[in-house]
Input
Amino acid sequence: MRTLTIRDLPDSAYRGRRVLVRVDYNVPLEDGRVADDTRIQATLPTLRYLTERGARVILVSHLGRPKGRWDEAYSLRPVAARLSELLGAEARFVPDVVGAEARAAAEALRDGDVLLLENVRFLPGEETNEREVAEGLAALADVYVNDAFGAAHRAHASTAAVAEVMRQEGRPAVAGLLMERELTMLGKALESPERPFVAIIGGAKISGKIDVIENLLPRVDSLLVGGAMANTFFRALGLQTGRSLVEEDRVELARQLLERAGEKLVLPVDCVVSGEAKPGARTWLLDRDSVPPEGMILDIGPKTVATFREYVDRARTVLWNGPMGMAEIEEFSHGTVGVARALADATARGATTIVGGGDSVAAVQEAGLADRMTHVSTGGGASLEFLEGRTLPGVAVLDRSDDA
Output
């Protein structure tokens, strides 16, 4: 079954019609301005597709965690200003979501106009997926489009219940172009990757990625593990890890994974060790079997970067989720940046490279390499759950077709 997208509807479904688009404009704000507009830019193809066909676009998004209360600090007004700049046309803003002001603004739209509603999480029923909120949103439009992959793993009123209401009333509920690309890129990597298929998993804890590892192991040709989660595997091998972060209750699980995976699971061979996890700390490059009692493993070392690069160089598909160390501190960022450069070079050679997960995405952006990847996912938690093999509520409720 294939999820239907905005391309599956005829142009007549848009001209003169109001289209409610769930976007993910959960962006950082600084001094009343958008500090990073990556997520806004990612929705522009969908918005242009709709406005060029005469749709009257109504955007709904969340920002931060206002916990069902109105809070000016989480207002989407600055987002509307930046969106207007990117579109080259006014994106109207209304400080309302489903009330009379929002309805009046929606009814006043003309063909090709764009309206941004206020933060949907100001409504207490949004995160509890209340039908009343969904019906209020559905009443604004003739078509529903979910282009918020980053929120698709949440069964909220604006991502799940509203689509159910629309479909029950015979109105379309389809995916936007960004959502389509996310599902296509991640889905192909899991189901029909060009081989060799290499996955790189990092981050702090096995417990946070165990379902991803379990789902990927039978699918990949090699699974490279970095980040603090590698420490738990080291402990399973009987190595000393000093004061490094180790999940003691997961050591046996790590041992079982190593036995089951065999040579398919590749661990770091050297590491960056320090007595302090802070900027300016003194560091040592040590083999993984030479960590002193007072040391903390905070990054993979250069020999590991070289080894991981060898796997990436041979790969035709590379999936990366999670940093290789404490990448937010420069002294412990070199392993993550090294892996990012290896993926960028692989992309240039024609490999498909996919980066998902908030910290690894932030790392490739910080390194200026995001545009050298085949696909950088906009969904942290959503991409993680997708890689775990879970059904995303915001996708499951959309219209589907029997054709592949």
Observations:
- The chain has a mean pLDDT of 95.
- The two ends are 6 Å apart (CA to CA).
- The longest strand covers residues 18-22.
